[in-house]
TrEMBL record:
It holds the Pfam family Exo_endo_phos2. Residues 147-450 form the Inositol polyphosphate-related phosphatase domain. InterPro entries: Endo/exonu/phosph_ase_sf (IPR036691), IP5P_plant (IPR045849), IPPc (IPR000300). The lineage of its organism: Eukaryota, Viridiplantae, Streptophyta, Embryophyta, Tracheophyta. GO terms for biological process: phosphatidylinositol dephosphorylation. This is Inositol polyphosphate-related phosphatase domain-containing protein.
Amino acid sequence: MSRLTETQDYRIFASTWNVGGKSPSRGLDLDDWLHSSPPADIYVLGFQEIVPLNAGNVLGTEDNVPAKKWVSLIRRTLNKNPEPSSHGGYRTPSPVPDPVVELDADFEGSSRRHDSSSFFQRRSFQNLSRSLRVEGNDMFPQPRLDRRFSVCGPVTLGGRPSNFDGNFMCTGSPDDQYIDEDANNGPYFSPFPYGYGASPPAEENNEHPNTPRYCLVASKQMVGVFLTVWVRNEIRNDVRNLKVSCVGRGLMGYLGNKGSISISMSLHHTTFCFVCCHLTSGEKEGDEFRRNSDVMEILRKTRFPRVRGCGDIKSPETILEHDRIIWLGDLNYRISLSYPSAKALVEMHNWKQLLEKDQLRIERRCGRVFQGWKEGKIYFPPTYKYSFNSDRYSGYGVRPKEKRRTPAWCDRILWYGNGIIQLSYVRGESRFSDHRPVYSIFVAEVEILRQRRRNMGYFSSRVEVEELLPYSHSYADIKFY
């Protein structure tokens, strides 16, 4: 036997949403947010402020009830989407205008935006007024609070050291779903139901007619930051080596009200890292340098334990050692303009001139942060800060001396590495919080090792076997691929 390396393309839907500490109701409609045609193979969904960032949540016990509600809503939405193609992997994407260009290219103004409005504008979520009501705990069991550490420390799972903490969830089977609207109260599943980094047994894969099309393979909460990864059920056995690392950058420089969650995984023989962050806030001059420092510390401190005994499967220890990386979150970079100047440009839909003062763009061009990373072309309006249940930016009608926020593109998605292409980069129009969700669709190349039998004549085969026999001390020494 010999090995043949092939590449297959997978669609990845990545999104970030600062939900402003609000817990979702049962009636919140996520279809407009999560709809993708054709459906993606992997969904990477990151949240910020999933709980209010008050002293009780930052210093005390972690409230995981809102996270459970979001997981249930996401599961329900993904599994009622149209059935994905049975061919697996990447399907031909829907035509999109203007594929992503380099960040340094000129940005278009309002005229270009209106021409592309059918693609880049999405309708608002339905039933908004109903979705803004919190319906208590009729949807989920009473809260169970777990002690939270803002920076993941080493724990032992099955006798192996790891930097998982007890709240990291890894699933391999829909039976392991830890929340469900119709499920009875039961214990949390273990991080690895089938052993360290293992996949579920083959007999459990897709033999039940009610098996969901998408399953949750990993989720992690650190105070208000929450990251989930979902995959098509057909490829869940190909996802291995799930690991998590958290870095706190909040109070005292290490608490988890700000910081990052990073999830590492392998899909076949390609490694992925998904980073969800919430960086330092603030509009004062120099606050952008604190955000730069957050990024550098996250890159420096994020560490994944090496997985041993996995043959030639790569086991990256740092973010940048992965083959494909997607970084999303509320990066909190602002617009370096006065409120009146920014307001005037927003009203004119002059995104090109507004983006020239975007701090993230400026810092990247100066080489102070995210060197070598890529971000797609921005056609959409600033995503922050909106008034409650409104399409108006906060601060309109407020007296100049009162506190008001300059509109900004706080919510961003970047990527790093070869073999990954961005198809779209848009925002949603939900009024659920003071931020608008941002999402992107990628196509990522994945390496797959295939077994190939050598074509040999009888004589050459006999000679090759005889040459190997003296070196084989027992049947157990022979490796079958």
